[in-house]
Amino acid sequence: MTKRRILAATLGAALAVTLVATPASATGHSRGELLSTVDLGGLTAEELTGKLAKGPLAGQRAEHGVDSYRVTYRTIDPHGKATTASGLVVLPRTTQRRLDVVSYLHGTRASRHDVASVQDNLDRTSALLLAAAGDVVTAPDYLGLGTGPGKHPYMHTASETTASVDLLRAARELTRRKGVWLDPRVRVTGFSQGGKAAMAVGRALRSGADRHFRLGALAPIAGPYDIEHAELPGIFDGRVNPRSAMFYLAYYTVSMNRLYPIYRDPAEVFREPYAAVVEKLFDNETSERQIMEALPATPAELFTESFMARLRAPSGVLLRVIRDTDGTCADWRPGVPVLLFAGRNDTDVPFANAENCAADLRSSGAPARVMDAGAVDHFGSWFRSLPKVRDWFAHAR
């Protein structure tokens, strides 16, 4: 068994224990319990079509009007302790009382204020587009973003998964109160960080993470599924643009150091003057623009030579961190159709991520297909692929 498959088996077992053992928190409250709901308003089909026409999803038509809600619900933190999280739930305007559900998982957000339940951003627009096809859509903010407490554990696979599954439970309660029943088959998609998280959520649902929901279809977009063998090599061979590499690595290093002992002092990995400010920048209150303005243009300018060497050849704790993040594609069989969307000109998440994920799935007997979005960059892959995901989900009912 290869190292990648060993780590995937370990990750899968850990997720299964966390997700399946019981939906109860340490305080006795139920995970996924709906705590509060805020009505964010609605749009008619005509209004939503007009909204879509003004952005990168122009040309898409809404079949249904939609109503959006920010929900707060119970979940667990990376240590299994009780906490809360927020997320967006979008309901289509339809007379149907039994509806399909889509889980949409967002990409990298450094500020808690930049998520779909708080801001009318492109993640919210993406959720609205998916719901306009007649499906209930859940879009978790993840831990530490939106109105949730604490710091966001960026790229932490296990907590992305629990927050997402628990939002499905909260959405089931919300829709039940409105006289709507959710089909148990969940179709899962996501972009960038959310693409990788989508694979993990799919795996959890397939393994029985929830007594009601199960995996129905899987279509992630531009996910960094393989940091060890695709993302990090791409940073050092030029496939990942330096500015993006700097930002992702800084966010990842600071966030993961809160869970793993990567460094004791920021000066061990960050050069001055950045070592003195970098942890404060990634406090999930600072905007991405402010972060980018405060940090240099390349990883080599931000990180010490010794840490750059560790990134080139990860070992020890750093390798454990990376492998705990990776492994979402290996050693499991989804049992449902899987499409992996990616752009050939993506300089944030190289195309090799999708190719490696597909290879891992195929080695487990899963007929995954890589869907080439064409000569588009990272965000171009999102906007070009999402309408195709929506249409494919409609045919996968």
Describe the structure.
Keywords: Hydrolase, Signal. It comes from Amycolatopsis suaedae. This is Alpha/beta hydrolase. One of its GO terms (biological process) is lipid catabolic process. With about 400 residues, the chain is α/β, with parallel strands linked by helices. It has 2 domains: about 5-225 and about 325-395, Alpha/Beta hydrolase fold, catalytic domain (Rossmann fold, 3-Layer(aba) Sandwich), CATH 3.40.50; about 225-325, 434 Repressor (Amino-terminal Domain) (Orthogonal Bundle), CATH 1.10.260. It has 14 helices and 9 strands. The chain has helices at about 5-20, 45-55, 120-130, 155-175, 195-205, 225-235, 240-255, 280, 290-295, 300, 305-310, 315-325, 350-365, 380-395; strands spanning about 35-45, 65-75, 80-90, 100-105, 135-140, 180-190, 215-220, 340, 370. The chain starts with a helix and ends with a helix.
